[in-house]
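Q: For a teaching handout, I want to show students what a protein-ligand complex looks like in token form. Below are the inputs, and the small molecule is nicotinamide-adenine-dinucleotide. Please produce the holo structure.
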Amino acid sequence: MAAKSIKQELLRRIEDRSAVVGIIGLGYVGLPLAVEFAKAGFRVIGYDVSQRVVDLLNAGDSHIQDVPASEVAALVRGGLFEASTDEVRLNECDAISIAVPTPLSKTRDPDMSYVISASQTAMRQVKKGVLVALESTTYPGTTREILMPALSSRGFTVGEDVFVAFSPERVDPGNPVYHTKNTPKVVGGITPACVDVASAFYQTCIDTIVPVSSPEAAELVKLLENTFRSVNIGLVNEMAIVCDKLGVDVWEVIDAAGTKPFGFMKFTPGPGIGGHCIPLDPHYLAWKMRTLNYKTRFVDLASEINSQMPAFVVEKVAHALNADRKPVNGSKILVLGVAYKRDIDDVRESPALDVMRLLEGQGAIVQFHDPFIPIVREDGHEHHGVDLTTKLLESADAVVVVTDHKSVDYQFVMDHASLIVDSRNVTKKLVKTKARVVSLSDSRGT
Ligand SMILES: NC(=O)c1ccc[n+]([C@@H]2O[C@H](COP(=O)([O-])OP(=O)(O)OC[C@H]3O[C@@H](n4cnc5c(N)ncnc54)[C@H](O)[C@@H]3O)[C@@H](O)[C@H]2O)c1
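A: Here is the structure, written as tokens, with nicotinamide-adenine-dinucleotide included.
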């Protein structure tokens, strides 16, 4: 088949939904995407190396908070979605999205092993006339340097026999307004034909497509977005430290600055940053630029400030206990919220883990309560969450608010605890009853 007709045939199959969609990696990104394509009328095959995930999904369950099990069950029942650990099943697919992890190595360099492995899987299974799109957040150049050569090694000409693109996932877990479908999707292809095909593919289930001129531009869009957040959070975290030294309430300053109707965007300080994205992604950019003999100073500085925030919070706890003539060593400390952000069940890179580790390192007896997370497993240890009871609060020497889940009754905490170290400003609007509150930026306490 001539190149033009290969592309036309794929576009036709996308248009009439006879194309079969493959998703490699069925996690926070891959599963919502698989569900959107299935809801758009495609037959979707999800491939994952985890037998547990595959079995769970095929049983009509869901391991991702934003994807209801009922939705997965209906799609499985309707024959629109199935999961498999058998990569050969990808051979049935006309369009494949790759959404595998992109973590950092111990030395905080990109760990590309998952992307390489998934690219090899795609290489072994693709046939002529297939689109392969990478969604994993990564450094500029990955699609061209890893995915494209893998597919070319089969003798395919990219842009003619197969189509290769990068399209960053922007899912914001727990966001009640923006989800996969109504978040605009950026698409960068190796060739114009690749952009055309990838745009047509994503358009079937995502409201707005934003084509850019290359995969590198698309890769950098995602890194800019997350670096922007990291740098701005770093700035307000530094402002919290500044305010603390000046005895000024950082929340009051930020709220008042936020009344400016132009030229200011509100970010809030906290105990540090977490999740699979903001703490990691900027390092992909910094690493890439180091290979080009350029040091990304904003990225590095923001990361340094943000990563020091758990220690800043622990210092606050130590000072607050000291005012009560208590050492950290032996004190009972309740950490409230361990998820990396509000109203989600994900502890990856959560600053709460650092706060707990640092407090335990100083001899504190640490417990945690999190309505979304019953157990935290770290370094071979298991921490079990506890219920938020009057007895627990009365027996705690300090309660440290790390994550501000909406469902926690903070007034109840205020009424029964003796000391609250509030890194999220949850106590601002409460009736001041029993607890002494120490905020992130007021060393005098209230
Ligand atoms: N979680 C988010 O909020 C978010 C948002 C935007 C972008 N991203 C990016 O999306 C990518 C995926 O992140 P995630 O949060 O979905 O990860 P995840 O850990 O939730 O899911 C990844 C899945 O891939 C599977 N997997 C690993 N290696 C595989 C392989 N070789 N073949 C097939 N399956 C494999 C794992 O078993 C897992 O189920 C990352 O690059 C991340 O930075 C994540």
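A: Two things your students might notice: The mean pLDDT is 95. The radius of gyration is 24 Å.
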